[in-house]
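re: ur question from earlier - yeah i can do the single chain one, its not a big deal. heres the input i used so u can compare w yours
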Amino acid sequence: MTGYSVFVSPHARLDVIDAVEWYEEQQVGLGSDFAEAYSQIQDRIQSNPHQFPRFGRQYYRALFSRFPYAVYFQIVHEEQLIDILAVKHQHRSPRHILWSLRRNRG
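and the output i got, formated as tokens:
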């Protein structure tokens, strides 16, 4: 699908910044690798958001291939918008992630 715009919520932006900083502290250059992986997955989401599995009833989840993280988003069809709500470590409980998505929405 084409024609979708992407909006990255302030919460998701902070999630990415936190992860980049953490990885950079672990090893120089690893934070940049995470940022690049995030950029690539965001491009994949924008090019075809329906390729990713649903997470709950109204969200989707796109997994990173190299890092244990996932991008959580919703598709607002009326506005042709992909709303990226969070970027979370995969070891977070699904219940916590759903709570966070609901809280951060809108």
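The helical segments are 10-26, 30-47, 94-104. not sure if urs matches, ping me
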